[in-house]
What we know:
Layout: E1 10-13, H1 19-30, E2 34-39, H2 43-54, E3 60-64, H3 70-84, E4 89-92, H4 107-135, E5 146-151, H5 164-184, E6 189-196, H6 205-208, H7 211-218, H8 229-240, E7 251-254
Helix pairs in contact: 1-2, 1-8, 3-4, 4-5
The structure holds nicotinamide-adenine-dinucleotide.
Amino acid sequence: MTLPLLRGQKALVTGANSGIGKSTAIALGRAGADVVVNYVAGPEDAEAVVKEIESFGVRAYAAQADVSDEDQVDEMFAHMVSEFGTIDVLVANAGLQRDASVTDMTLAQWQKVIDVNLTGQFLCARAAAKEFLRRGLVPEVSRCVGKIICMSSVHQIIPWAGHVNYASSKGGVLMMMQTLAQELAPHGIRVNAVAPGAIKTPINRDAWSSPQAEAELLKLIPYRRVGEPDDIANAVTVMASDLMDYVVGSTLFVDGGMTLFPGFATGG
Ligand code: NAD
């Protein structure tokens, strides 16, 4: 059964063959959108996501592109316009970690994370914005010209020792998102972010896959539950819909309260 929230809309989700991106692509399809499933490696996983989305009676296809490569990103968007006619929703989700203490972190580790997590979102947002502006408003599809949702993290505001590249990339995503929102809102384009807390995906398997690790993690989560990819997918789906039409330049934290300074719960 499809929900009509995004009926007739065309969405692209980056990094959509795993974790949060996979759940989000499926949720957008379930809400009635046609979906491009971007991936960089693992075509079988991407095809499985496509199949699941098609089961809702909407269209989907897998598109290989490295989001940090300008030519590949522009080609992916050009192909989407030729296949689907346009794009209404971009979920800039692809991301990775290359963890090390600052003294051990190589320039390559720093650069890779900035290239994928920050530059990759910029390249995709730029390509989407160009298409939104070319196409203009189609009132029977959506109240707004286009939606960009940046996948951020609680680490856009929480410093994270041993992860200076990742935290810096997400801090950059916050300011990029707000600046794009300010620049594009007069054109009827909504740019927002969803900021997950700890979600069970391959990116952070060590943090939740053993009972001891999960118990440690739960100390940071007032709601005492590690998140699931669907928690984020549901938030993105609503953020992409006209139910959130007046939400511009905001970050929606979906984190079980991780950003509530849980260490202060007992006095501080
Ligand atoms: P994941 O590893 O399951 O998924 C990441 C996806 O990004 C994968 O499909 C991967 O192939 C893809 N990717 C990596 N480099 C790419 C590239 N160059 N081009 C295209 N795709 C690329 O991890 P996830 O947890 O689902 O992460 C998704 C997003 O959520 C990331 O931006 C991550 O920073 C963010 N996030 C995750 C958590 C969490 O707890 N899992 C918390 C906060 C934020």
